[in-house]
Amino acid sequence: MISMDVQKRLMGADGPMELDIQLQLEQGQFATLYGPSGAGKTSTLRVLAGLMKPDKGHVTVYGEPWFDAQKNIHRPPGERGIGFVFQDYALFPHMTILQNLQFALGKGQNSDIVNRLMEITALEGLRDRKPPELSGGQQQRVALARALVQQPKLLLLDEPLAALDLETRLTLQDYLFELHREFGLTTLLISHDVGEIMKLSGLVFQLADGRIAKKGPPGDIFLPKRVSGKFQFTGEVLKIEREEVVYVLTIRIQNTVVKVVAGEAEVRSLQVGDKVLVASKAFNPILYKL
Amino acid sequence: MNRLEGHISGIEVSGGMSLVTVRLTEQLSLRAIVIETPDTAPYLVHGRKIQLMFKETEVVIGTREDLPVSLQNSIKGLLQSVETGTLLSRLQIETEVGPISSVISSNSVERLGLRENSEVYAMVKLNEMMLSE
């Protein structure tokens, strides 16, 4: 169990703000911090990573104190056993992919882990290449693999996929989920992408003004109302076209694109890029064995 | 999408499914079948306020009440407007429980001689009715 109860006064974009976060993560959990910019998401990760020292409170990880204001404990980042991946990859440009991963090995650590990570993230073919020769998605795969070389107790991800195009993002989500499962990681992700959160995460902490405003499974957070339709997905509106007296909406649901017919009343409040709940009765779809 | 509000007046459960009766007025009740039971869906409670939702493309239009069809969900109304396209037409119907939209073929509009102020019956199969809190 990872348990955090910290307070810190921060200078936000709109003046001072009180970060006041209580959260707990079970081992093996994949949780997400969600909320507007300036709500305290990155500060929360930085506190866990040891890059920011709170004013008050404690951070306890599997019984070990990482931070305790009263006992004056503040374990430095290097001694916490965390993996941290940001939006920019921060790889060593002059080293090969293999060297980048080997550099992250601890003293005397068996290098088998590097091979295993390269296997899972399909980096073997790129091992002798250098980061500037790689695409953004490939570099982020390296950054992800590197963060896991030391088999961290806690993996912290600060919008790691936000800069990538949609297709690459969807592929990396699969790698991320596979790594999380394979290594039994405890992962805390910052993401604004509801589809991504629904796909990866089992628990969401919704932050507002430095506090946790809401927490629960993604379905409870993002699906505003309970609807009886059993055929339910969250999607993103890609296109809205008028066809005679109805509208045809093109909607991305995970990595599939579907079309939905809608009336004017539904379309009036929608625009391209909006997240939507797509619901139908279980009675409607037909099935074909493939 | 059409949305009507009523109160749950009956829940008939069999296995994992429930046939839910929603009372909108003294005279008008509509029914929905859902793959939920009061054990799995906390909103399935007698007397609870509930929304019935159904797509305009699932609304069948009849011009008489006593048609020999299986549909039981039938709402009487007056046609307010007809917006005609080449293939499809959108009908706006004023009923005692609020406006209902229906999208049917333009051919059927013509065949049934539907025009403003026609008296119509909007009908919906019970498996097309969704419930929402």
Write structural notes for this entry:
- In chain A, 24% of the residues lie in helices and 34% in strands.
- The radius of gyration of chain A is 21 Å and the shape is globular.
- Chain A is an alpha/beta fold and 290 residues long.
- In chain A, the strands form three sheets. In chain A, strands 7-8-9-3-10-11 form a six-stranded mixed beta sheet, sandwiched between helices.
- Chain A contains eight helices and 15 strands.
- Chain A has two domains: 2-222, Rossmann fold (3-Layer(aba) Sandwich), CATH 3.40.50; 231-280, Nucleic acid-binding proteins (OB fold (Dihydrolipoamide Acetyltransferase, E2P)), CATH 2.40.50.140.
- Chain A has helices at residues 41-49, 97-103, 112-120, 136-148, 166-182, 194-200, 218-222, 264-267, and strands spanning 2-12, 15-25, 30-34, 56-61, 64-68, 73-74, 82-85, 154-158, 187-190, 203-208, 211-216, 231-243, 246-253, 256-262, 275-280.
- The mean pLDDT of chain A is 90.
- The longest helix of chain A is centred in the middle third of the chain and has 17 residues, at 166-182.
- In chain A, helix 4 packs parallel to helix 5.
- Chain B is mainly beta and 133 residues long.
- Chain B has a single domain (2-132), classed as RNA polymerase II/Efflux pump adaptor protein, barrel-sandwich hybrid domain (OB fold (Dihydrolipoamide Acetyltransferase, E2P)).
- Chain B starts with a strand and ends with a strand.
- The chains are: A alpha/beta (290), B mainly beta (133).
